[in-house]
Amino acid sequence: MVKKNRNLITGGSGFLGSHLSKRLLEKGEEVICLDNFFTGTKKNIQDLIKHQNFEIIRHDITEPIQLEVDKIWHLACPASPIHYQLNPIKTAKTSFMGTYNMLGLAKRTSAKFLLASTSEVYGDPEEHPQKESYRGSVNTIGVRSCYDEGKRISETLCADYQRVHGVDIRIMRIFNTYGPNMRFDDGRVISNFIVQALKGNKISIYGDGSQTRSFCYVDDLINGMILLMDSNYINPVNIGNPNEFSIIELANIVKELINPNLDFQYKKLPKDDPKQRKPSIQLAKHLLNWEPKVELRNGLIKTINWFKKNM
Ligand code: NAD
Ligand code: UDP
Fold this sequence. Notes:
Elements: E1 6-10, H1 15-26, E2 30-35, E3 54-58, E4 71-74, H2 81-84, H3 88-109, E5 112-118, H4 145-165, E6 169-174, E7 177-178, H5 189-199, E8 203-206, E9 212-214, E10 216-217, H6 218-230, E11 236-239, E12 244-246, H7 247-258, E13 264-267, H8 282-288, H9 296-310
Parallel strand pairs: 1-2, 1-4, 2-3, 4-5, 5-6, 6-11, 7-10, 8-13
Antiparallel strand pairs: 9-12
The chain binds nicotinamide-adenine-dinucleotide (NAD) and uridine-5'-diphosphate.
């Protein structure tokens, strides 16, 4: 029998995990989706369930688990501010205990291990754009800290498992990503704006909307993720789209694509909301020969069409 690549995807039923699962199955590989369904949904993976190379395990990664796998794609962690702040202690526990348990599994099975880290490790950055060498400006005791510091300790655990036990790690710093399979109630900006606009509601702008983000379409992101896993590079790599937009600019594009008559509703800026964010992707370009291809407008059209069909 031909040996298949056995992939464990923690958080496999979430937004990014469901896309990664699909792509690895298309490559003929085996996928074990491990999830506690906190923010993930079975709907995201309903088309994959019948696939002979796909398995689902309901499990919370704060508890250890014994499996035999070749690669671990460690994505499990709520990613939207409203979700990770709902139970911040659990978010910190998922980041620390969850990553510790999954690294233990990688050590025992000699599996390659990729951590889905985040641009949030840079906090509210004073360096712009953010390079991997920037050490960040994170509030250790703020409302976002459970996630930001959680991801920073996850990176630290990875680096120590590499140094102490030789685990073959990858650290991917993901910048804001969007696309089909985001929850309608996800709370992140693109899904919020699309859902509001499709319902004919006002678009909620937090603060004055001058803060910036750089949005990557999910297909580009998954390409980068697979290239990084296949590389031999053990230090952090930014993966994101460097085209930067203010939140007002984003709102205007969504408005124009869905309903030009919509109004904005200004709301209080959440605490510690980073003022600017844009990845430097020089390292990913050089190392992986990767760069994003999907322009914001085109990615939004695909995402809007998906929301229209699935809402
Ligand atoms: P998501 O919330 O859609 O997916 C997270 C998944 O992890 C969900 O399926 C959830 O049920 C699962 N999960 C959470 N806690 C768990 C636990 N204790 N045990 C088992 N499963 C658990 O988020 P996403 O956007 O798909 O993000 C995936 C990963 O990528 C996260 O680690 C996130 O921090 C990282 N990331 C995402 C973005 C982005 O823009 N999407 C940006 C930066 C980093
Ligand atoms: N945001 C907004 N309206 C919304 C949701 C978010 O103006 O309905 C803003 C939010 O304040 C932040 C940016 O959009 O400045 C991105 O927010 P998101 O929650 O998507 O991601 P993150 O802050 O984690 O980058």
